[in-house]
């Protein structure tokens, strides 16, 4: 029950009933989220198989049911129900006529499959006697059948007894003097009673014949059962062997530097330096499909490692060249040399400066169970920010603090300042743009939605050379403005609006807005946008996060570009998971560097010494081959702190973001009570406090709306909410309206004058 109807299933089946193969579109019931889905069914050799598209017939079968042992039933004028053991298909045809065609074809195919099976069993010679367990499994049903036959015999005797009594009564009625028409009716009833008794006797005889037949065919059943068991054992052994091989290959892949950053890939572009991928044929997969088609996107380019002395092409690809040495590159690349000689965990910039001792742990996450579906089932299709969520799905950080986490690897920008070449600098900016995703790989919890006017500061000017300020400048849609100043020679600013949709099985998070980065000495101004984040298995299974899409980083002064591609996870892909590839090119489109790595581990950079056009792809476009020197690791993820799995998988920086600090603004996220209670493990109190804060914010919004209506009635202008520390301006580079820092916050902090701050907590 509970299954909805389907729409038109397409054209008529591809073959008439009675032929060996029968094909056509039917609707198949999937689940209560998606209901009936259109599938391509193929009936052949007693097997009914289905596919999502006709093209899938060449490589992917979604399911098969054996008709020789299946039960075929019809629910209504258009529905068909096929059941075979524990597997049941609920199908729906476009019309009653089409349903009848399928039923006829299925019945004929079932009869033919049964005949073929019996013939095969008869042709086979004597086999070894079945085991005692097999005999017991078969004799059990036979015994049950005998018992049911006895019940039927008892019923037959009762029917015969009552039938005879009925006939006697009718005969007595015939002997009575009744009108002629009454006598005819009684005679007709008597004849029907006789037919009923004959039919019941025939039914009992048929049941007895069936039992005899079942007993005579017990050996055939035993052989079939033994054959199926052997097939299952062989299949399990094969799958186990494949799993072991896959595991060993994966370990070898991760352990060998030559395979860590992915396999060679082929470009669909004729222009050197371009990494725009050519889309394959449009997929007919459902919108809710969890896995991406591995063949949907053509890979980006081929890289081969050049001999550093003779620039000869070697047999290894870009990642295979990671065993190269720093001296393979020219000495002028001093910044790359310094980044390769020491890891960021031992960066001189972090260790030589005095650092304030900060906390290294927070209270462990409580183990509270909660039924996610009970909350989510009424939220499908809604904006995530409008769904009332308990803190059980949160982590004790706000979205403003998560935005500040982008600065975890700020040393990349400090190194970029020292680059004399704009293309070298672009490599570090690209690595920085990827590094901001490294903290998300295990972070499946949702950050707190900031209240309107909420702020967050991170003042590390004396320790790390930068200070950061975020402010929630809009509530619907939620938007946060961010400004970072570094005394080491760079400034970063952005306004990010989060658009998110809950799709039933996964959650899509789409950051909207541009990120700006400017270097003080060179005036290089970089702009890029974030990719889409997807949280999978929202309802069932373990949550996991993937990043997919493309980032184009543009230096608006020199016109250099970097195209980065985040490859979506595919179950069938041979690539390393979470792969990122890209090419850095100058204003003329000449490629200078190849970027490769993963967004959760590291990014490498390889200098291009030669590029050429290879063979033509199947789409008719030329492939680009880059000959590169050995790659350099620009960025590598810091290891997580000890016990991170019990602390929301926070990084070292994330653990300090909500640490209480003095002299911050009264609107700072550290002072938010529900977030603080959640961090302390008092989730019930946090939920109550969260509801109070949200209701307080709604009251302020209603008052603001009333003021707007009043101003409109009086013919006055109403400005609405005005951010405290940011102001809206048209960006000179992108032409977009963006919130930029107008100053005053750090001066107010020095004076401890927070009189302009609203009471939001």
Automatic annotation (TrEMBL):
Biased segments, Polar residues type: 262-277, 336-347
Region (Disordered): 116-140, 254-289, 306-361
GO cellular component annotations of the record: cytosol; perinuclear endoplasmic reticulum; plasma membrane
Xref: Gene3D superfamilies: 2.40.160.120, Pleckstrin-homology domain (PH domain)/Phosphotyrosine-binding domain (PTB)
GO BP terms in the entry: lipid transport
Stated name of the protein: Oxysterol-binding protein
Keywords, in A-Z order: Coiled coil, Lipid transport, Lipid-binding, Membrane, Phosphoprotein, Transport
Coiled coil residues, start to end: 225-252
Source organism: Leptocoma aspasia
Localization per Swiss-Prot or TrEMBL: Membrane
Phylogenetic placement of the source organism: Eukaryota, Metazoa, Chordata, Craniata, Vertebrata
One Pfam entry name: Oxysterol_BP
Lipid bilayer topology: Peripheral membrane protein
GO molecular function: cholesterol binding
């Amino acid at each position: 029950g509970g299954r909805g109807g389907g729409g038109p299933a397409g054209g008529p089946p591809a073959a008439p009933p009675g032929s060996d193969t029968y094909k056509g579109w039917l609707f198949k019931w999937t689940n209560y989220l998606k209901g009936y889905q259109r599938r391509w069914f193929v009936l052949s050799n007693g097997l009914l198989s289905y596919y999502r598209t006709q093209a899938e017939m060449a490589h992917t079968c979604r399911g098969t049911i054996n008709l020789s042992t299946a039960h075929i039933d019809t629910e209504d004028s258009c529905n068909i129900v096929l059941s075979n053991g524990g597997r049941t298909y609920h199908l729906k045809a476009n019309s009653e006529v089409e349903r009848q065609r399928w039923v006829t074809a299925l019945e004929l195919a079932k009869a033919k499959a049964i005949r073929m099976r019996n013939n095969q069993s008869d042709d086979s010679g004597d086999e070894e006697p079945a085991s005692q367990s097999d005999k017991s499994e078969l004799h059990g049903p036979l015994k049950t059948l005998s018992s049911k036959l006895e019940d039927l015999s008892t019923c037959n005797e009762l029917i015969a007894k009552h039938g005879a009594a009925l006939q006697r009564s009718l005969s007595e009625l015939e002997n009575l003097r009744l009108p002629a028409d009454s006598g005819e009716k009684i005679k007709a009833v008597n004849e029907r009673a006789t037919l009923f008794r004959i039919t019941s006797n025939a039914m009992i005889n048929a049941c007895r014949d069936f039992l005899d037949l079942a007993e005579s065919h017990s050996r055939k059943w035993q052989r079939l059962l033994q054959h199926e068991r052997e097939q299952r054992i062989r299949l399990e052994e094969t799958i186990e062997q494949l799993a072991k091989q896959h595991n060993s290959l994966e370990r070898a892949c991760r352990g060998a530097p030559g395979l860590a950053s992915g396999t060679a890939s082929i470009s669909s572009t004729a222009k050197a330096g371009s990494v725009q991928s050519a889309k394959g044929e449009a997929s007919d997969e459902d919108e809710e499909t969890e896995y991406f088609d591995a063949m949907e996107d053509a890979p980006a380019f081929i890289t081969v490692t050049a001999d550093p002395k003779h620039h000869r092409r070697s047999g290894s690809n870009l990642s295979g060249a990671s065993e190269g040495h720093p001296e393979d590159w020219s000495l002028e690349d001093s910044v790359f040399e310094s980044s390769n000689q020491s890891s960021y965990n031992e960066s001189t910039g972090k260790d030589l400066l005095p650092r304030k001792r900060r906390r290294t742990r927070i209270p462990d996450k409580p183990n509270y169970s909660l039924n996610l579906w009970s909350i989510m089932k009424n939220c499908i299709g809604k904006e995530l920010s409008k769904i009332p969520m308990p803190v059980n799905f949160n982590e004790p950080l706000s979205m403003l603090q998560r935005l500040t986490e982008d600065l975890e690897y700020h040393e990349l920008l400090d190194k970029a300042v020292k680059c004399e070449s704009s293309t070298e600098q672009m490599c570090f900016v690209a690595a920085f743009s990827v590094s901001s995703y490294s903290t998300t790989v295990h972070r499946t919890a949702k950050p707190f939605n900031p209240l309107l006017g909420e702020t967050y500061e991170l003042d590390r000017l004396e320790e790390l050379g930068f200070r950061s300020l975020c402010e929630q400048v809009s509530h619907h849609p939620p938007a946060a403005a961010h400004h970072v100043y570094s005394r080491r020679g760079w400034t970063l600013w952005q306004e990010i609006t989060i658009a998110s949709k809950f799709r039933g099985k996964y959650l899509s998070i789409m950051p909207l807005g541009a990120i700006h980065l400017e270097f003080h000495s060179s005036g290089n101004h970089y702009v890029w946008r974030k990719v889409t984040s997807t949280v999978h298995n929202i309802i069932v299974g373990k949550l996991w996060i993937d990043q997919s899409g493309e980032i184009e980083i543009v230096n608006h002064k020199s016109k250099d570009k970097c195209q980065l591609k985040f490859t979506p996870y595919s179950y069938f892909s041979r690539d390393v998971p979470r792969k990122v590839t890209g090419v850095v090119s100058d204003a003329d489109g000449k490629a200078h560097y190849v970027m490769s790595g993963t967004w959760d581990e590291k990014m490498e950079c390889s200098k291009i010494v030669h590029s050429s056009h290879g063979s033509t792809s199947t789409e008719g476009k030329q492939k680009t081959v880059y000959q590169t020197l050995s790659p350099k690791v620009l960025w590598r993820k810091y290891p997580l702190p000890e016990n991170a799995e019990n602390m929301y998988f926070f990084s070292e920086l994330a653990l300090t973001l909500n640490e209480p600090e003095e002299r911050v603004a009264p609107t700072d996220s550290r002072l938010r009570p529900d977030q603080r209670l959640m961090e302390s493990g008092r989730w019930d109190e946090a939920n109550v406090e969260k509801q109070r804060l949200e209701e307080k914010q709604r009251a302020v919004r209603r008052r603001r709306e009333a003021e707007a209506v009043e101003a409109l009635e009086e013919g006055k202008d109403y400005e609405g909410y005005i951010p405290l520390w940011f102001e809206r301006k048209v960006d000179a580079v992108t032409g977009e309206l963006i919130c930029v820092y107008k100053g005053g916050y750090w001066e107010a902090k020095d004076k401890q004058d927070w009189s302009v701050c609203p009471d939001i907590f």
